[in-house]
User: Which sequence fits this backbone?
């Protein structure tokens, strides 16, 4: 049940602060989520977020049951095409001038996915995109769908201004060349970096630290 779910320490106050924005008044910064959880968990997860006071504008869930029924069992674990598709669909909902802060972890390929999403928005298309997707192990059917979807996205500057990766796998951090990537042991690391970017108020860092002290 929703009341039995436990958020990652520091996540709830960080999300509330991002939603509010760094100014004197709340500006309701859009929050979108892409979850690898099955669609059947939507009511529980949405209820949990409501209980935590986390407002959001959209959540995408993976159709794991549908994939299983179609015999596409390997696709349940494949995340690159799924997450890119969800992000590009959200991109179509937002103004072309919107700038994105991306949050993920190192269990999957989130940093790679987020950076590639930005490149697609900035004009990566056609054969070059197909080769990149193939190098990442995306199967041909998924590549074809992504190429078509990418062709519908207006070309702008790369909208991704920050990529925050929580180190959750227990593995040693991989070398990172993208200056936008911030590797975080906890969400307190992310909060400090977001203050430097002008995306959070300094007092929000204390709220994240307090939550970590209580639940970490």
Assistant:
């Amino acid at each position: 049940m929703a009341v039995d779910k436990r958020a990652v320490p520091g996540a709830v106050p960080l999300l509330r602060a991002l939603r509010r924005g760094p100014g004197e008044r709340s500006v309701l910064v859009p929050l979108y989520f892409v979850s690898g959880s099955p669609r059947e968990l939507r009511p529980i997860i949405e209820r949990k977020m409501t209980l935590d006071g986390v407002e959001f504008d959209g959540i995408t869930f993976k159709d794991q049951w549908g994939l299983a029924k179609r015999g596409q069992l390997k696709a349940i674990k494949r995340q690159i095409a799924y997450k890119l598709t969800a992000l590009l669909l959200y991109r179509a909902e937002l103004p072309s001038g919107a700038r994105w802060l991306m949050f993920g972890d190192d269990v999957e390929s989130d940093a790679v996915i987020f950076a590639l999403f930005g490149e697609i928005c900035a004009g990566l298309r056609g054969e070059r995109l197909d080769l990149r997707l193939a190098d990442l192990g995306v199967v041909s059917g998924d590549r074809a769908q992504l190429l078509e979807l990418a062709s519908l996205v207006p070309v702008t500057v790369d909208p991704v201004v920050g990529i925050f990766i929580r180190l959750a796998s227990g593995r040693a951090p991989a070398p990172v060349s993208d200056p936008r990537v911030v590797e975080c042991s906890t969400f307190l690391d992310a909060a400090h970096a977001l203050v430097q970017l002008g995306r959070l108020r300094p007092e929000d860092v204390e709220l994240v630290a307090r939550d970590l002290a209580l639940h970490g």
In short: The first helix runs from residue 11 to 20. The chain has a mean pLDDT of 90.
